[in-house]
Amino acid sequence: MSGIGKYYVVDAIAEYRRKHPKVTFDLSFANRVPDLLDEQLDSSLIVASQLPDSNLIVHDFGRVFSVACAAPAYVAQFGAPSTPDDLQHHQCIEWPPVVGLSRTWLAHTGSKSVEVPCGSAALRVSSSDALSAAVRAGMGIGLLPMYVALSGLQTGELVRILPTFTFHEARVLSLHISRQYLDARIRTWTDHLKYYITERLQSDVERIGSESRD
Fold this sequence. Notes:
Elements (H helix, E strand, L loop, with lengths): L1 H18 L23 E6 L8 E14 L1 H7 L13 E3 L9 E6 L2 E6 L3 E4 L3 H9 L5 E4 H10 L3 E3 L4 E11 L7 H30 L1
Helix pairs in contact: 1-5, 4-5
C-alpha cells in the first residue's frame, strides 16, 4: 500500500489542498485492512484482489498489476524467458506484491490466468524500492508494480520480460463508513480521489503498454 500512497495518494492530497487549503490530513500506511470505526479513520485506500466482505461503502478506482522486469545486463548474459514456464530456469527476486502469496507467480494474459513457479531466489526483499534496486543491479528478474517499473522502462534501465503478460492483478479500492455518516468533507475527498487515481491508473496502464511495444 505504501507504493500506491507514494505514487498516487500524496499527489492527490496536494492537489486537493490547493482547492481546500483548510483541510488537513493524517496519512498512514499498513499492510492490512484497518478498522475504520475502532481506529477513528475517515477513509481507507486498499489494494485487494477481491472486494472485502464488510458493511463499508466501497469505491473501485481501477486495476493495478506487476510486470516482470530485468536489467539489460541480465538479459544480455542470461537471455529472456519466452514463456512463463521458462521463469523457473532464471534467477528471480522474491517480493510478493500481495500479502500471503507463495513463490508461485500468478500470470495473466487476456482472460486467462496461470500459476507459474519462479526460479531460484537470487534475493528476497521486503519492499518494492529494494526490489527495484536489485532488478536494476542485474541480480535477476523481479515483478515490479507497474508504477514502479514505468520510469525504468522509459529510460532503458529496465527491460520488460514476457510483455504480453501481467502478474498479480488487483483492484484499488476506497473504503468509508456508510453514507449516513458521510460528511461533505469526506464526500468531496472521495470524489476527488476517485477522479484523480482512476485517471492516473488508466494513464499508467496505457504508458506501460506503449513502452512494452516500443
